[in-house]
């Protein structure tokens, strides 16, 4: 809303100044998507009898047009009932004023959203000619007598209401045909189409300039990042400078922009991501012993709850199994390998009382995939392989109640999801992941929490990490478990500028 240190904006100039200032901060400094900004320049009351209030309707309409011109892609909203507050008690008068105001604000100035009483809303072209003229005079401040004339008409309408209460039918009023009018057009409304060279870029200097990731995470000094770390071997995964000649034409980690490389790869050939990890573990157990004892390993042999089924724990207790599965996928032609970290959040690991292992599971999950990819890349450097850090949906949902009798109940908060995902992101990146993937999402709020955590990590580190998102349509209705279609799901997460969905 158009407020600043000096108070509420009343005039056209004040409304434009405050909104323009907010736009510059949000878009140029915060890098907030301009198409997601909604300004409310304040609809103020007219017809009060005070001369300084007479032009409030005109001020809003003119300010709306200027804001739309000077702040491209923003939306304009307003609480319309404020406009006619001086005529409360006579709905017909109020809704007639609203109809005229909305016609000018929308069709001439490009207003997008209005808070209205939809049930009572009128169309300006349905108004009687004399009522239309009275409203035009008042809203657009055409004549000095506009408020006085409308007050006289208001007194008449009150008399009509009283007559109806006494059982006297009001005279029938003819309705005029509604004619559709085109919306206002701006210079940026119909941009010239440009060739798409790649996915939309995130709002960061590293992404926009395609700055290569140095893979030297030991140099990160963010307190929030370092506070997450527990047990690890190494934090640096850059390839030695002398490994390849300076003019080597293929991808070199730390020298080249992964975003740029993936864009060319995805637009020139079919890239292959690996298949399911869980079914491969099940297949392994058909020919090999993989029971509770093997899941526990030596380290967790005295753990006080059963851990069989915690496939992510095999990263620590049976690393050869997980690395072997990665290697099989690579040998089959996969260029992208997902980490065995589908449930490696504090939230998911709480079922096994292993919340404290979240960072470690993600770190070593990424490290195993990193080792497998590097070994395969060394055999054929012309076809580099990449580690995709997998962030699963967790076993709790932010927007769905676990209690069918109380839809307001939640067993996890948005902030708890963000914290859990942030720890997972740090572990995956420290372990050598190239890409981050929010995967198999069925609740969009969980996806938004994961993307928020990734954004916080990228802001803290200044890195450019490609982000993938995969959603799950749970049945033939083509919707996620939280009820969204594929299109709605993408609209909900597009602000994060994922490279792939």
| Strand fraction | 5-15%
Overall domain count: 2
Overall mean pLDDT:
92
Q: Give the strand order of the largest sheet, numbering strands 1, 2, ... along the chain.
A: 5-6-7-8
Q: Write the H/E string, N to C.
A: EEHEHEHHHHHHHHHHEHHEHEHEH
The CATH architecture of the largest domain comes to Alpha-Beta Barrel
Q: Which stretches are poorly predicted, pLDDT < 50 over at least 5 residues?
A: 173-177
CATH topology of the largest domain: TIM Barrel
What can be said about the biggest beta sheet? 4 strands, parallel
Amount of helix: 40-55%
Q: How many strands in all? A: 8
- Shape call: elongated
How far apart, in Å, are the first and last alpha carbons? 34 Å
Kindly name the structural category: mainly alpha
CATH class of the largest domain: Alpha Beta
Supply the CATH superfamily name of the largest domain. Answer: Homocysteine-binding-like domain
Cα-atom radius of gyration: 30 Å
Number of helices: 17
Give the oligomeric state.
single chain
């Amino acid at each position: 809303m158009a407020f600043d240190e000096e108070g509420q904006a009343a005039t056209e100039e004040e409304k434009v100044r405050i909104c323009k200032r907010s736009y510059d901060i949000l878009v140029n400094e915060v890098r907030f998507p301009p198409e997601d900004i909604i300004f409310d320049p304040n609809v103020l009351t007219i017809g009060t009898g005070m001369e300084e209030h007479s032009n409030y309707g005109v001020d809003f309409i003119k300010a709306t047009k200027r804001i739309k011109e000077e702040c491209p892609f923003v939306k304009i909203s307003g609480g319309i009932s404020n406009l006619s507050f001086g005529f409360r008690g006579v709905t017909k008068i109020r809704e007639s004023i609203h109809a005229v105001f909305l016609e000018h604000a929308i069709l001439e100035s490009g207003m997008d959203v209005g808070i209205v009483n939809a049930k009572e809303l009128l169309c300006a072209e349905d108004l009687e000619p004399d009522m239309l003229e009275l409203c035009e005079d008042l809203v657009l401040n055409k004549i000095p007598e506009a408020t006085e004339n409308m007050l006289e008409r208001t007194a008449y309408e009150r008399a009509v209401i009283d007559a109806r209460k006494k059982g006297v039918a009001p005279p029938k009023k003819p309705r005029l045909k509604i004619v559709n009018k085109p919306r206002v057009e701006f210079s940026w409304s119909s941009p010239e189409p440009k060739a798409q060279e790649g996915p939309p870029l995130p709002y960061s200097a590293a992404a926009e300039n395609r700055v290569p990731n140095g893979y030297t995470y030991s140099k990160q000094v963010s307190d929030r990042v370092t506070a997450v770390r527990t047990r690890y071997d190494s934090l640096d995964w850059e390839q030695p400078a002398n490994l390849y000649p300076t003019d080597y034409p293929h991808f070199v980690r730390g020298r080249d922009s992964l975003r740029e490389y993936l864009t060319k790869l995805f637009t020139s050939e079919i890239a292959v991501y690996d298949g399911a990890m869980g079914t491969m573990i099940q297949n392994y157990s058909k020919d090999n012993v993989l029971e509770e004892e093997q899941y526990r390993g030596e380290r967790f042999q005295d753990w006080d709850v059963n851990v069989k089924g915690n496939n992510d724990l095999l990263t620590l207790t049976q690393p050869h199994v997980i690395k072997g599965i990665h290697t099989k996928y690579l040998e089959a032609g996969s260029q992208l390998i997902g980490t065995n970290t589908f449930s490696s959040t504090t939230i998911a690991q709480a079922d096994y009382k292993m919340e404290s292992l979240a960072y470690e599971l993600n770190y070593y999950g990424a490290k195993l995939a990193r080792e497998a990819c590097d070994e395969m890349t060394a055999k054929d450097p012309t076809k580099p392989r990449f580690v995709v850090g997998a962030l699963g949906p967790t076993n709790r949902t932010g927007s769905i109640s676990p209690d069918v009798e109380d839809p307001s109940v939640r067993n996890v908060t948005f902030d708890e999801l963000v914290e859990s995902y942030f720890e997972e992101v740090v572990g995956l990146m420290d372990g050598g992941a190239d890409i981050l993937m929010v995967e198999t999402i069925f609740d969009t709020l969980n996806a938004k929490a994961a993307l928020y955590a990734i954004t916080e990590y990228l802001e803290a580190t200044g890195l450019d990490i490609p982000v993938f998102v995969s959603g799950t349509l749970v049945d033939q209705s083509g919707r996620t478990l939280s009820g969204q279609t594929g299109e709605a799901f993408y609209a909900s997460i597009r602000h994060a500028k994922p490279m792939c969905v």
